[in-house]
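Contributing new records

If you add data, match the layout below exactly. Sequence lines come first and carry their own label; structure lines follow with theirs. Keep one chain per record. Anything else will be rejected by the validation script.
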Amino acid sequence: MRAVLETPWFSVEALPSRDDDEPYYVLSSPDGVVVLPITEDGRYLLIRQYRAARGRLSLEAPAGQIDAGETPEQAARRELLEETGCTASDMIALGAGGLALNRERSKVHLFLALGVRPEPGARPETGIALEPVDADELRDKVLSGECEHIAALGLITLAAWRGHSLPGLTPGDFRDVR
């Protein structure tokens, strides 16, 4: 294995191929977190920010990398504060997995943040707009493709399947979506 590109956020490594002489390229980066914040009044707190890879604004859940020495929960709390200016009374770990198993080594830890409220004196990072939505708006944004953050979509489903009460959503919402 050899690094062919290194940045402060990720590296690209060349692995020997099993099938031919061409290398297989893998993206390596620190593990990350994605947080589904639910405010004290039962709204889902999404963020809208510019994504250069997409060339447009994206509607998503707060997320980011786990810094050296941090636990996944510490990173989830930090990302929530940095990206929304809010804190949570409860941070529930739902599980972890990969996003692009064919190319990425990193794991993403999923969290449900309950009792989310503004932290006095804190503000969202520059370039991030908060978008609190109720369950109907969330469903509409997901089904229309406006919210395409796949980790956030998986987080919503995983939270429901693990038996967590999601404001305005019922188990039936996850059976027959057309």
